[in-house]
Amino acid sequence: MRSILGMVVLTCALAACTPAANTERTWTMDDGAVFPAARGLARAEDGLALADGRLIVVDQMHGLRLIAPDETSRPFGRFAEAGYAHAPPTQIAGPNGVSLEPDSVHALLADVFTGAIYRIDLNTEGVELIYSHPFGVNTAVADSTGAIWFTQSAANAAGPHSEERLFAPLNNYAAEGALFRIPPPDDNGVRGPAQQLIDGLQFANGIVIDEARGQLYFAETMGDKINAYPVTVASGELGEARVLATIVGPDNVELDEHGNLWVASPIQSALIVVDPDTGEMRTAFRESTPESDALVAEWSRRAAVREGALELFGPALWGRLPGASTGMILTPGDGPVYVTTLGDALVKIER
């Protein structure tokens, strides 16, 4: 988090980051509802919308959970058969980023505590462990060639201290993040080893590939920025980096059907929409109180001088939200937007 840029972004966030020509409103919890109303989710960090209106969300106990429109839910995917287990304190799983593959039949789930990447068949619920990384994997996405790109946030090896080690950079600002690519399968279905493309990142987080624009975007949480790279998916080559947007503590990112980039900021309890062509931003959702505004300002102050900020990351920061706002589930057309959280429920906003 840069001293000057952090304060500029804070000012922008409090003013809703809205270009003069943009008259779209900013939602708050007054516009939303806890979903499911009965709660019952477990660390619902990220999720997907299925074509039939159901949602798939991350679930720490089981891997994934399926939520029906009537708000009933059940575990989704045969994760135990693929070796998934959450048995604290000795074995802690951290399912984190989930993404839909281009074929719309498979999804990828990354584990930020164990380093596992799972591939899920959405029709059969079969689950395959396709890669095990030495450190936690934040988010994994597939491109149209079948290659898989993923981010590493910290050097947190699997084990009872993986969660503690993951969040250490929020205090020590260690640049242990990295971007990797796993080549597509060969004719025999065998993948080559993961290749590290970028290192020295400050908590690399959500990632998305915009093949229409030939761009790869990923969040650098402790760097307060969204990075953009020209990408050639056929070869896996990246061009020269640029900073697409400067946002306090960005987390998960997602492209909507119009090609806009949505960014979650758990520090600001916000969803911010970025125009990938111009970098213009507007705040689609923000939940704030005078207390949380003061905490965001203190977070930026500490970041500027590299003081530990982890203690600020608590319920006072996210107020009425079920937990820290880590991402979003976008549904087609004018369908609902769901704010994903580290808590026991989502927030549903009707557009």
Describe the structure.
- By secondary structure, the chain is mainly β.
- It has 5 helices and 25 strands.
- It has helices at 3-14, 162-166, 169-172, 290-305, 315-318; strands at residues 32-35, 47-49, 55-59, 63-67, 73-76, 95-100, 106-111, 116-121, 127-132, 139-142, 148-152, 177-182, 195-201, 204-210, 215-220, 225-232, 237-238, 242-246, 253-255, 261-265, 270-274, 281-286, 325-330, 337-341, 346-349.
- The strands form 6 sheets. Strands 14, 15, 16, 17 and 18 form a 5-stranded antiparallel sheet that branches.
- Helix 1 packs antiparallel against helix 4 (290-305).
- The longest helix has 16 residues, at 290-305.
- The protein is globular and about 60 Å long.
Helical coverage, percent range: 10-25%
* Topology pattern, helix = H, strand = E: HEEEEEEEEEEEHHEEEEEEEEEEEHHEEE
Q: Strand percentage, roughly?
A: 35-45%
Shape descriptor:
globular
How many helical elements? 5
Compute the CA-based radius of gyration: 19 Å
- The total strand number stands at 25
The SS-based structural class is: mainly beta
N-to-C terminal Cα separation, in Å? 32 Å
Nutshell version of this structure?
By secondary structure, the chain is mainly beta. The protein has helices at 3-14, 162-166, 169-172, 290-305, 315-318; strands spanning 32-35, 47-49, 55-59, 63-67, 73-76, 95-100, 106-111, 116-121, 127-132, 139-142, 148-152, 177-182, 195-201, 204-210, 215-220, 225-232, 237-238, 242-246, 253-255, 261-265, 270-274, 281-286, 325-330, 337-341, 346-349.
